[in-house]
## 1
Amino acid sequence: KYGADALRFTLITGNAPGNDMRFYYERVEASRNFANKVWNASRFIMMNMPEEGIPEVEQSALTNADKWILSKANTLVKEVTENIEKYELGVAADKLYNFIWEEFCDWYIEMVKPRLYGEDNNTKEAALYTLKTVLEISLKLLHPYMPFVTEEIYCTLNDNAETIMIEKWPEYKEELNFAGEEESVEIIKTAVRNIRNVRAGMNVPPSRKAQVYIVTENEKVANIFEDGRVFFQTLSYAGEVKIQKDKSGIAEDAVSAVIEHANIYMPFAELVDIDKEIERLKKEEEKLTKELARVEGMLSNEKFVSKAPAAKIEEEKEKQAKYTQMMKQVREQLAHLQK
């Protein structure tokens, strides 16, 4: 139903040697989804590869994002090799899963999309080189766990490859250790997460773009966002990114997110359709008014209070306190929007 690779991966992960484990179809399904993720990411990369192939790229041509993922992959090689040599097969598989799914697919591939689609982008070749290099490393490390899907992808990716099984196992290279670039990209990732959390809390759809202001007096942080502007703008759903030293030109009602050495601001009016938000809050106020009337009616009814169990009375009191607090927040928001 799910394929041999998915079953193998399930049986080797999430368990310590010597322990019995319960078998869950849901876990095999999750492993099948992981195999699909690897397959789809590989297809995306191959669709963007030129027919003539990718030449070697000088290290000086790589961006911070390229160096970050190459450095992460390099560390992964070292750790997975050590784990496998110690027979810590499940630990190695978990590290591979997290790296491929989160760092490579969810972050790096999304970061480089703007560079792949712009024909005039002079970093496109470096992006393609990095994508292919990291994919090949990932496939080789994953091969002992998922032999079938990795063999198929690797031999399609490399026409001249006889089989992935006789390819050289990846080795850690000191020259691919880019600690500074790793730190830079992690700062941007933190900023993107914080922006997404703010937007999610306000129910702002990804399609709604807003200006993002990075306010920092720290020159190093300002340079990090300047260098990563292209992918930061894409990942944070920003219409425009402005990097400045103070709050000048930023609306008073701008919502904010905080990272180390910088504040991030987004104009409220660009995130929210104010008329629609007022309408939504008025409906919420109406609903809470009815709920409060119901609860207060019950609690002021002597028959209910004298006959109802203590737990039921306490429950209604908790609801009254909750609805009162919610009403206060709704009215504060309404007052702010109707100014």
## 2
Amino acid sequence: LPTWRPDEFMAVGTLEWNHAVEKLAEHTDENTSTLSGFLIALEKTHRYFRERGGVASDHGIEAPYGKPASTDEAAKIFQKAISGEKVAGEEERAFKAFLLHFFAELNTEAHWVMQLHIGAVRDYRDFLLRSLGKDSGGDVASHAIEISKGLYHFLNAFDGRLKIVLY
């Protein structure tokens, strides 16, 4: 079954992220220059997978992010990133946590399973990346991370509402 994988939209503040946001606008006919337009466009891609039989999302995260930004904070971080400014540290983690919660809300509404690949370091094998493209299975896991503190807000926000698989 098709699985929704919005990992590229988690790399906030990178050149690749800005390109992905531009492509998202083209594919969805949404203005992604604001956080609200960006979220509407992401929701459209989620709906696209749901309409084609999708029942799960898959998210590679190197380490759990902790407490999410509020919508107002996320909007400020988004504007900073979309303007080409560097987003790092606590801002980056808070924005990624905000997005992960947004994705979980979409999954909750759709009755989907949400898979979190914790410690995933994507595209580790150059040969697979060059020959097959991004996220083609050349991944490794980092186990030198603190998991429980970063998952606290997420798991408690969706406890009893969402089926979550942790890898």
## 3
Amino acid sequence: HLRSPPDPSTAPATELVVALYGSFFAERSLEAADALAAASGLPLRLVTVRPTPADIPSAESYLARVARRAPRVRDLTVEVGSDVATSLAAAAADGALIVMATHARRAVGEVLFGSVADEVLRAADRPVLLVGPNAGVPDPTFVTIVLPEDGGPGGRRLRPHAQAWSEQLAAAA
């Protein structure tokens, strides 16, 4: 069915910030972000974090290469910092939705390897869309939005965000 293009001025976010760190795995989140950008009318911004200013030129080159695969990319940002999660959260302006990959490791894996995604969830004061290792490109029509609900406070806090995205995308929640 045909629907009118979404109005970015009423969107539940101002932009989609895609967190990248140089791996194919992280770049898979760009596919989901690009589909959401197309459906919502929002721009994409690619962000990476590097430990020193000397890393900025190679990081900018990397982001430029990745940006060629997503026509909705409007900006590239290289943050310099030793705390990746805090730097990513800070790079996302007010109103941005952070999109990033997660390895979805079990508890033992997180203890051994850590979880940047978990750290970003704790550091960010805004919604974060995690793209799991088995996620594919979403249906570009976003007919249905599924919100996992366990009855806890987290699910209740997410309901208004899910409802706003559902309305923006003309999807069933």
## 4
Amino acid sequence: LVVFAASSLTEAFEALGAAFATIDGGVPVVLNPAGSQTLAAQLMEGAPADVFAAADATQLARVADAGLLAGPAEPFATSRMAIAVEPGNPRGITDLADLARDDLLVVLPAAEVPAGRYARAVLAAAGVTVVPVSLEPDVRAALSKVTLGEADATIVYTSDVAAAGDRVTGVAIPGDLNVIATYPIAVLAGAPAGVDAAARFVAFVRSAEGRRILAGHGFDAP
């Protein structure tokens, strides 16, 4: 079962795939993680897959408009945004306004990536202008710049901070400035492994057990 999933879902969907394989006759799940816009483009260019889990409705709608879905998309998780900084926060970053400091190297996901759009929304809500030193193709690439010491800070999902463990420190963004990212999932038309198998995986992701696994990786319920 080939699953195209937003990069921020990597660890959660590895765990979901492993759990699904034990309850569904040993059906193995092969994960293809990347930026949602990249995955949508691959699918529209004919890449074979069974399930698409995106980080926002916009990218999944592109695939739907191309007639590539076997049924409606359904929400399965949410996340919020957070500032990710180096372990221990050595640069003393406490809020969004600090990201405008000229002594910091800040990277952001590119604007066409869902996380990049959400990052710009929270910065706009705070009235903060940031000039990033680089724009990354997906949220995990932006996070990697911080974990590798190549940047001082970025804006990612709270679930990404959880996934990074002690490789980063998270700085919370207040609720009145934050956004709620809703993740949709759908079965793809012509699923090579079969629409029924793909639908069972989607149902598992949205089940109580699936949501327990997602919660363990920092995601909230839809």
